[in-house]
């Protein structure tokens, strides 16, 4: 696919994809495909998320090229994917990437299937896995259930694994970018022009057409007005506390500030953060925040 797309974009090749596919097949020889089960989900029911190796991008701090990480969220029904580039990962960045993906999709699925990476799962378990508290509460705000895969069982999220491989082998193979923004723009253009318009090999339908069946229009969350936090003069505005008095460091997110960004969560960040809010009890802080933030409408 990547060879054909480069031929069309760069050399004006008039032939079709199947022509290039037959030619490459002769060079590679026949290969026996591996049998695998296809997991069928209802529209808006499931999304799968994972990290992959991103392209080389020049680091503005060092001036040198460094490897990025490719975040991919793939909807289980339409195979519509959101691909985002980042230099590093943490509990906070992992949660922010999910939020950005939901914004781009215009809604959120009911279940997110993920691997047992530390940013999302602290203790893998087949029956009762321990989720990262920050990730758990962000998903709870949007009404999404996290479903970690079994250890050493990546086939459960084969759709996003395929989405990661598709991006690595097609638009990003051998590419270098001068900035993260340049790489993201290139990736978004490829997503619109090629990934969304392709006929998926399993569903035999266009990705964009299937995505139109499961997405619904939603009001931009950033335009919604939230009521003041009870007992303080702080106002909730899209996941954030904005304090009038006394002045405090401006956290982007109440949940991020409440949980902290440390991986181990050994301290009690909720207790620490609650002490900065007069009249606020730590045990009710996160629950109150989540209760007052209205979730996006679901993809149905």
How would you sum up this structure, described in words?
- The protein is an alpha/beta fold and 300 residues long.
- The protein has three domains: 1-28, no CATH class; 46-214, Ribonuclease H-like superfamily/Ribonuclease H (Nucleotidyltransferase, domain 5); 221-292, no CATH class.
- It is built from ten helices and ten strands.
- The protein has helices spanning 2-11, 17-28, 91-105, 133-141, 158-169, 180-195, 207-214, 254-259, 269-274, 282-292; strands at 46-58, 65-75, 81-86, 111-114, 121-123, 130-131, 145-148, 176-177, 235-236, 241-242.
- Strands 1, 2, 3, 4, 7 and 8 form a six-stranded mixed beta sheet that branches. A two-stranded antiparallel ribbon has the order 5-6. The protein has a two-stranded antiparallel ribbon with strand order 9-10.
- Helix 3 (91-105) packs parallel to helix 4.
- The protein is globular and about 50 Å long.
- It starts with a helix and ends in an 8-residue tail after the last helix.
Topology (elements, then pairings):
Blueprint: H1 2-11, H2 17-28, E1 46-58, E2 65-75, E3 81-86, H3 91-105, E4 111-114, E5 121-123, E6 130-131, H4 133-141, E7 145-148, H5 158-169, E8 176-177, H6 180-195, H7 207-214, E9 235-236, E10 241-242, H8 254-259, H9 269-274, H10 282-292
Parallel strand pairs: 1-4, 1-8, 4-7
Antiparallel strand pairs: 1-2, 2-3, 5-6, 9-10
Helix pairs in contact: 3-4
């Amino acid at each position: 696919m990547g060879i054909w797309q480069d031929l069309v974009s760069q050399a004006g090749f008039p032939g079709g994809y199947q022509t290039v596919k037959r030619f490459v097949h002769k060079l590679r020889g026949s290969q026996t495909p591996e049998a695998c089960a296809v997991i069928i989900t209802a529209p808006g029911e499931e999304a799968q998320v994972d990290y992959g190796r991103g392209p080389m991008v020049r680091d503005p701090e060092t001036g040198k090229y460094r490897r990025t990480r490719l975040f991919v969220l793939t909807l289980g029904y339409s195979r519509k994917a959101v691909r985002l580039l980042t230099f590093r990962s943490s509990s906070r960045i992992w949660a922010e990437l999910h939020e950005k993906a939901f914004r781009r999709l215009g809604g959120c699925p009911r279940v997110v299937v993920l691997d047992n990476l530390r940013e999302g799962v602290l203790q893998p378990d087949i029956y009762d896995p321990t989720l990262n508290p920050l990730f758990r509460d962000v998903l709870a705000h949007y009404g999404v259930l996290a479903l970690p895969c079994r250890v050493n069982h990546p086939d459960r999220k084969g759709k996003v694994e395929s989405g990661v491989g598709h991006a690595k082998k097609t638009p990003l193979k051998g590419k270098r970018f001068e900035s993260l923004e340049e790489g993201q723009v290139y990736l978004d253009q490829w997503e619109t022009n090629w990934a969304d318009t392709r006929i998926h090999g399993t569903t035999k339908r266009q990705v964009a057409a299937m995505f139109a069946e499961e997405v619904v229009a939603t009001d931009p969350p950033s335009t919604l007005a939230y009521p003041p936090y009870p007992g303080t003069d702080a106002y909730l505005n899209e996941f954030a506390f904005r304090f009038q008095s006394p002045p405090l460091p401006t956290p982007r997110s109440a949940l991020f500030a409440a949980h902290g960004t440390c991986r181990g969560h050994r301290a009690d960040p909720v207790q620490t953060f609650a002490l900065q809010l007069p009249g606020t009890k730590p045990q009710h802080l996160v629950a109150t925040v989540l209760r007052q933030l209205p979730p996006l409408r679901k993809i149905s």
